[in-house]
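Following up on my earlier message about S-adenosyl-L-homocysteine. Here are the inputs again, as you asked, copied directly from the submission form:
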Amino acid sequence: MAQFAAPFSDDFLLHYITTEDPAEAEKLFAAARKIRSRHYGEDVYFRGLIEFTNHCKNDCRYCGIRKSNGKVERYRLSPEEILHCCRIGDLLGYRTFVLQGGEDPWFTDERMAGILCAIRRNYPDHAITLSIGERSRESYEALFRAGADRYLLRHETANNGHYRKLHPPAMSLAERKQCLFTLREIGYQVGAGFMVGAPFQTPECLLEDLRFLEELRPHMVGIGPFIPQGDTPFAKYPGGSLQLTLRMVALTRLLLPKTLIPATTALGTISPDGRERGLMAGANVVMPNLSPRAVRKLYALYDNKICTGDEAAECRLCMEGRIRNSGFVPNMARGDSAMEAGAAPARI
Ligand code: SAH
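Thanks, got it. Here's what our run produced:
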C-alpha cells in the first residue's frame, strides 16, 4: 500500500476524486480504514445534536432555512428547552452536546453565554460544541469564556468563484476562513468541512478543499453530500453522489490521519446504509439527534432528512446497533481529537 503514503500529489488526489472504478475506490477505503484504526482503533464517538433554532439571517442558496425561504415555520428553543435536551442527552450517556442553528440574532452573546454557563454548571466534564455560523472575534471569545470548547463551521467550498455561486454577495470565503483561524487561535477545537456535489462544483474545487484542510489542520471535518431542498434556488439541481462523498471522506482521512470525521446525517439520507459506509471509508463519529421531536421536521436544511420522527433514545439505540453491526465499537466518552497533541495551527 506504498502509494497511500504522504505527501499526496495533486495527480494522486484528482485520480481518486474522479475514479469511477469500484476496485480503486475500495483500495482507497481500505487504506483510510487502516489509518483510522491506527489512531482511533474501531471506536466511533457519539455527539448529541441539538438543533436549537431555524431562524437565520443568512441566505445561502443551498440551505432550506435561508432567510428568503418564506415557507419554513420558524422555531427557537428556549434556554430551558435546550437544557432539557442536555438532561436527556446526559441520561442517554452523551458526553458531548452540539448546539447547532441558523445565524439567529436573537441568540446574542449574552443569551448564548447564559445558556453555556448553565450547561457548564450542570455538566462540568462534558464537551460543548457550537455550530452557529459567523460571528465576531469578540463574540467567539465571549462564548469560549462561557464554556464552549468546540466549534463547527464548514468552509463549504475552498474555491472563491464557487463560494460566490453558493452564497449571497455579502458573504465571502476570506471571511469564512478568517473565522476558522480566529476560532482556532482562541483555543476552540475547530471543525471545517464541505458539501460534495454542490451545484457548480468541479474536481478541482474538491482538490482545493483538501488542500485547505491540510493548511488549517482542523480537529474535525464534516463532509456530506449536497441534497436539494425544494424551496431554495438550487431545488432543481442534482444531489451529490454517495460514492464521491465516501471517496472524499477517505481522502480526508489520508491527509489528516488524526482528525475526527462524522458519518453525517446527509450521508444516511441519500442511502439507507450511508453512515455505515461512511465509517467503512474512514469516518469515526456519529451525531444522533437530541432535538425535541416536535421541531425536527422544521430544521429542514434539505429534503427527506432522516430521523425526524424518532425520540432521542431511539436515535441513540439505532446508531449503537448500526455501529456494532458494521464491526465498530460505540464510544460514549468526550472523544477529543487526537489532533490536539501536536497539531500546529498553520497561520498562528
Ligand atoms: N448556521 C451554521 C450551521 C449551518 S447548517 C453555519 O453557518 O455553520 C450545517 C451544515 O449543513 C452547513 O454547513 C452545510 O454544509 C449543510 N447544509 C446546508 N444545506 C444543505 C443541503 N441542501 N444539502 C446538504 N447539506 C446542507
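One observation from looking it over: The CA atoms of residues 59 and 68 lie 6 Å apart. Hope that helps, and feel free to reply on this thread.
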